[in-house]
Design a protein that fits this description.
2 copies of one chain form a homodimer. The first copy, chain A, is mainly alpha-helical. Among the domains of chain A are: 45-132, Winged helix-like DNA-binding domain superfamily/Winged helix DNA-binding domain (Arc Repressor Mutant, subunit A, Orthogonal Bundle), CATH 1.10.10; 136-163. The first copy, chain A, is 66% helix and 7% strand. In chain A, a hairpin with a 7-residue loop joins strand 2 (94-98) and strand 3 (106-110). In chain A, helix 2 packs across helix 6 and helix 4 (67-74) packs across helix 5. Chain A is globular, with a radius of gyration of 21 Å. Chains A and B meet through helix 2, helix 6 and helix 7 of A and helix 2, helix 6 and helix 7 of B. The structure holds a DNA duplex (30 and 30 nucleotides). Chains A, B: InterPro entries: HTH_MarR-typ, MarR/SlyA-like, Tscrpt_reg_MarR-type_CS, WH-like_DNA-bd_sf, WH_DNA-bd_sf. Chains A, B: This is DNA-binding transcriptional regulator, MarR family. Chains A, B: GO terms for molecular function: DNA binding; DNA-binding transcription factor activity. Chains A, B: One of its GO terms (biological process) is response to stress.
Chain lengths: 170, 170
DNA sequence: CTTAATTATTTTAAGTTTAAAGTAATTTGA
DNA sequence: TCAAATTACTTTAAACTTAAAATAATTAAG
């Protein structure tokens, strides 16, 4: 049994629940920032965050992507991609077409309008992030990137034991 | 106009788009971990992640919380708290009651069953996180916590200019 | 005192999310 | 060949999310 001193020392700092505290901080921080980015994307460009994410993935692939690949890259389930792409097609930002050689496959590709709209969005989106992190030491950003990557890697290896997580490398 | 060398030096490392890269890494990492925690909470305890979050907040307040406070602390909108609390009441994990002195106010409070169930969940939840971060250097965890907090603080101050973000201190 | 403003919560509509079941096309293997 | 398995996508149901409108209770102001 631990005495008062050990309990206090363990909880106040260091060993105690740092993993939990860090996780809660990561979660609340990304939630906070996501909410604001979502708000701005809606107000300025009338798109949702997942829609922006889909557009971003398609923008790097001028020939388009299969819905399955899109699903992996955005970490959005297959079932969800269907509706997302449907709405974006309705808005004229992308087109869908069936592959002739394998008619199970649907490829989504940005329209010219979608491409130019996304480029406007991406520019604003990046500048919001730059502004947000304006006062952060560049070395801190680099170190954060590398340490967060370490956690991501741990999640991929430890959690992958159960599932089959292949993609999601970004 | 920048020459090739400057362009290359700028993009490959350091200045370029580190803010964007860090943000995408933070987002994909929290999404990945959330997905697995959600999966395990569902399988082992039959609760969702937002429900777990509500229970966690109520667990620290034996006298219960107003729905508005619950909304702030969980960063869940008012409208959403209604349904969440409704389902948790149906499952017998909490009770709602109207305040006599101000009948606009509803207070939610854990039942005895809710309290003991949450404690089981919290124990498992914490051990999953410890396991996930097993190989991380404790100093890295501490440094991550402090740097992520810096970003959170920046978001609260920069974004608060527009909105009125008071709570969300955790 | 009584209407107007404010506060707390609920409702609504559109969209996203997960998990699971369903459909269609293609590939495999007996 | 042709039934069974696999693959790609869609559909479904329940829950969550946001933003905005609606309801109800209290407080404030004239």
């Amino acid at each position: 049994m631990l005495n008062d001193l050990e309990l206090a020392a363990g909880d106040v700092q260091g060993g105690g629940k740092m993993e939990l505290r860090l996780w809660l901080r990561l979660l609340s921080t990304t939630k906070l920032i996501s909410q604001e980015l979502r708000r701005r994307l809606r107000i300025e460009f009338n798109v949702t965050l997942p829609q922006f994410d889909v557009l971003a993935q398609l923008h790097r692939e001028p020939d388009g992507l299969r819905l399955g690949d899109l699903s992996q890259r955005t970490m959005v389930t297959n079932g969800n991609i269907t509706g997302l792409v449907e709405r974006l097609e309705t808005d004229g930002l992308l087109v869908r077409e069936r592959l002739r050689e394998d008619r199970r496959v649907t490829v989504a590709r940005l329209t010219e309008h979608g491409r130019s709209e996304f480029e406007r969005m991406a520019h604003a989106h990046e500048s919001w992030l730059k502004e947000l992190m304006r006062d952060m030491d560049p070395e801190v950003l680099t170190s954060l990137f590398s340490h967060v990557s370490e956690i991501k890697h741990a999640a991929l290896t430890r959690f992958a034991a159960t599932d089959e997580l292949d993609g999601a490398l970004d």
